[in-house]
Amino acid sequence: MPAMRPAPASPATPWDLDHCPGPVLAQRYADLQAFVSWLQEQNVEVPACWYAHGWVVHRLAVLQAWRTLAYSPGAHPRDAADWWAVGLAALQRDWEALLGHQGRHPPPDAPWDDPVPVPEFAEFVRAQVAARAHRDAEPGSA
To answer: How many domains does the chain have?
Structure first.
């Protein structure tokens, strides 16, 4: 039985990484990398392996879109305060255990082995884009 995929979101939802084609996915990862750099400039400690954890990537994409809205003209200051206190603070609590990874994970096919370095960001993104292209080329993946 093929894996169930959620219904596609509209193209206007930049946080929906599951439904963007490979080239768009590459750009979204680049945007997230810039967002992570900005967080680090704000003294937010981000796990070095953030991009290797799908749940972190998805939540960062949502937070990035939320921040854009929270700081948009006409937004109430409470929107920005909520972004920091509700959105970002919750993610920081949830990824706390990842900070100890220091960019190393056990191999997925041998979880009891010694940790090995996660792939470099660019290598990881290339693999994700290639997997997306392969997935999108499969019959019935429309």
So the answer is: 1
Tens-digit pLDDT profile for residues 63-80:
999 999 999 999 999 999
Residue 91 and residue 96: Cα distance in Å, rounded? 8
| Chain segment 25-61, per-residue pLDDT in tens | 999 999 999 999 999 999 999 999 999 999 999 999 9
- Asked if residue 47 lies in contact with residue 100, where contact means CB atoms within 8 angstroms, the answer is no
Q: Which domain holds residue 85?
A: 21-134
Contact between 110 and 55 (Cβ < 8 Å): no
Instruction: Determine if the pTM surpasses 0.70.
Output: yes
Residue 96: which of 140, 45, 28, 60 has the closest Cα? 45
Residue 41 forms part of a structural domain: yes
Cα distance between residue 13 and residue 17, in whole Å: 9
